[in-house]
Amino acid sequence: MGKTRMTKDRLSGIILLLLAVFVMIETRVLPLGTHSRPGPGYLPLLLSSFLAILGVILIVWGRLASSWRSVKWSEGLHALAILAGSVFTTLTLETLGYRLTMLILMVFLFGVMERLKWWMVFSLSVGLSFGSFWLFDTMLKVILPRGGLGF
Amino acid sequence: MNFFYGFMGCLVGTLVGVLPGVGPLAGISLLLPTTFGLNPTSAIILLSGIYYGAMYGGSTTSILMRIPGEAASVMTCIDGYALAQKGRAGPALAISAIGSYIAGTASVIGLMLLAPPLAKYALRFGPPEYFSLLVLGLLVLGYMTGGPMVKNLTMIVLGLLFGMIGIDHFSGYFRFSYGLVALGDGIGIVPVAVGLFGISEILTTAGQSIRPEVIKPRLKDLLPSKKELRDSMAPIGRGSLLGFLIGIIPGSAHIISTFISYAVERRVSKHPERFGKGAIEGVAGPESANNAASCGALVPMLALGVPTGPIPAVLLAALMVHGINPGPMLIKEQPVIFWGLIASMYVGNFILLLLNLPLVGIFVNFLRVPYKILYPTILMLCVVGVYAVNSSIVDVWIMIVMGILGYVLRKYDFEPAPMVLGVVLAPIVEMSFRQALAMSAGSYMIFVQRPISVVFLVATLVMIILALKPLVKKGKDWRERFTKVEKDEET
Amino acid sequence: MKLRKSIVFLVTVFVGAGFLGLVHNLAVAQEAYPSRPVQVIVPFPPGGVADLVARPLAAAMEKILKQPVVVANRGGAGGAVGMQAAAVSKPDGYTLMVALSSISVIPEVDKIFGRPQTYKMEDFAPIALLTSDPTILVIKKEAPWKNVAEFVEDAKRRPNEIKYASSGVYGTMHVAMEMFAHAAGIKLRHIPTAGGGPALTALLGGHVESLSGGPNVSIPHIKAGTLRVLAGWGGKRLQALPDAPTLKELGYEDVEFYIWSGLFAPRATPPAVIKILREATRQAVSVPEFKSAMEKMETPISYMDADEFKKFWDKDAQRLATAVRQIGKVE
What we know:
Largest sheet of chain B: 2 strands, antiparallel
Distance between the termini of chain C: 70 Å
Structural class of chain B: mainly alpha
Oligomer: heterotrimer
Helix content of chain B: over 70%
Strand order of the largest sheet of chain B: 1-2
Strand order of the largest sheet of chain C: 2-1-3-10-4-11
Number of domains of chain C: 2
CATH architecture of the largest domain in chain C: 3-Layer(aba) Sandwich
Strand content of chain C: 15-25%
Largest sheet of chain C: 6 strands, mixed
Shape of chain C: globular
CATH class of the largest domain in chain C: Alpha Beta
Number of domains of chain B: 1
Helix content of chain C: 40-55%
Strand content of chain B: under 5%
Radius of gyration of chain C: 23 Å
Order of helices and strands of chain B: HHHHHHHEEHHHHHHHHHHHHHH
CATH topology of the largest domain in chain C: D-Maltodextrin-Binding Protein, domain 2
CATH superfamily of the largest domain in chain C: Bordetella uptake gene, domain 1
């Protein structure tokens, strides 16, 4: 028995176990009810117990999986940037309004991330943000947020 | 004239279905006011056209971009997208259209012939039957989808837990909502599906400098090969039957039928390892099941006036606004309308086939656009589509969180599809369980006292025994069996 | 080369659409109310009672206000999600809400659970009452009770045995039934379901024995003979069901329950805007298309203008608050 490896599966197992414990703690406030009248806390507790068991199984048998370092995150930075853009968008969607927010997002993605030619960035960003607004808001009558500046 | 309405409905439905997030419900609600001025038959033709159209359209984005156009297209994302990666997007789309057509037509015939007796039978499904059925369904899922069973079960349980966020209709308590009323209704299926599949796909693929080979399809690659057609026929048949039967049950979600169909196809196939990498059966089956279920869902609505889900509820409402009250009297009192409806459904399916096959050629061109231009567009469409469903910014947040989760899950070899099912089913499973116990005043015997429920429970037991069989046979290797698939993927 | 072409094509399409949108926006100058589309929030999923009233109303008001009036469904938590959204929305008259009587129930329930208030009823300015349906007590045709008296007697004999379905705890169907049960001194077994539709399905399937629900979904079944009505929760008998006595007639004082729908605006909306809306609604309910839509759905229009509506609302809210407090926490 060599030293225990930290494998992918073991890592996920640990995280799941922690999550299960977290859920169990959170369900404390909910009444459990009885077996014949289960309360709102009943099933969540049951499920988080299952989750804990599954987590343990993964930890124990995760021995056979590959090392956790083998997970490649090569596109990670790029993904992070996209995420940052998305988060920004969601934060400002209702304050800056749909069109402006989308415009900024598109310019960021096309211009900064993908480094397209400036005229492409411009036309794509304007076209997509205003065009989709027209499609959804005017044509489909789904009201999209208009921010402080009226956009 | 009605043909025109049908065509419009199908067209609008397809377009609406193609957009991620916005689904048939939105499309129908959208055009509902315009139908007030029409006569009832035209109105319902228009609306059901949207319904089917959206179901068809939903598969398009699933195959091309791995984004479920709507929740029921989640299963198509798996093999459909893999096929697209191999340059077989055209055939995938075509088979999906053909399968949906066959399934839809078969279901309409089924509806025509069997509506009243089937509906009565369907009513006998009460909470105990539901619960047993769903337990069976969930177990089937864990056992039959790709990857090690432990991981799939984990995803299901995780999905079930996520599905419990929100208000508990049985007691009035808010669970896991941390004071945010917007979470009060729980996390919707749309943000979860779009986020877990679509956003995670963008996050994974956008930054890769070595892009996986996306073979650009040529014209002759647009049509399915003879072999693909032959391979799809049986899954289509099975999917149609399965979908129709499940669709009839009041309250069940169509998405269940797609999952079960996928699982069945995988089980029945002689080469199950092809699934997940582009098996046409994995598209043909679920797509047919989906369409058949949509049709089946209309059976209780038309025959008994009972809505089986949100979409039939809106269709029911639309009918009521026109003074038509579906129910046992409809066939007797207003046969013209009833048969008109049936005819319109048949025609609608046909229109969609005609519409979609040429559209395949157009849609496939999407793949030619370089990904770096495509993905911001998709991202934008996801955001607006998810927002549009409930005008809720919280839904967009959920989508983003699910996107991150999906990204991480893929890295750690977890299959996201079962989780989506868990989220959808959690409220139904729990409610059925508690309703059944309330009905029996606390006695667990109710699950075994009712015949239909017993059937499902026995089937569940059989499944469990089958799953454990390898354990009994070879003591040591069973551990490997759980993690075996994962090792295969690495070599 | 083909690649270039398709990109250029896409770009042109989008830019064209984009400029169309820009021009459209510039063309709409900032003028008198209303100068933009008006959004009507319906805090329930599509297809429900509120929806069925809101959509024809929106269509009618669109013609009067000469601006698009769009219904936005924001379902969730029995209406709480949408109602809260409407309560905090900008009070400029471009966000309205069509809500049901549950608007009075949710704050009470919050109090019972000791939660911070989702919203307060004072957050809303009532514009008009639109429809008001009393609920009815429906049973299956095969059920043994011929009238309310027999039902009550049976319930007294076997308490907590007779089951009824509701659309969810503290929902309209639940509160109505409990109001009656309390007045009659009986105990019924409550089976919550996920909504009005599932509740009706449960009754039709024989999984429960009774329910108290809106008339319009039950009337087709009553006419078809699969269901029977024992009584109504209204002050007067229903036009569509003249043989059904009201609970009031039968001696149950103060047991009145209406599923009503009303149009609301956020409290701080300028009075001038509210005046325009009140007038528009008054006209809208007389528009032939609206009337015929409501008729076809067997939902009588019970229009009340803002002041009358406020009185009705307050009285109803008191009744509901008492009923909810009596139910207390469901364990």
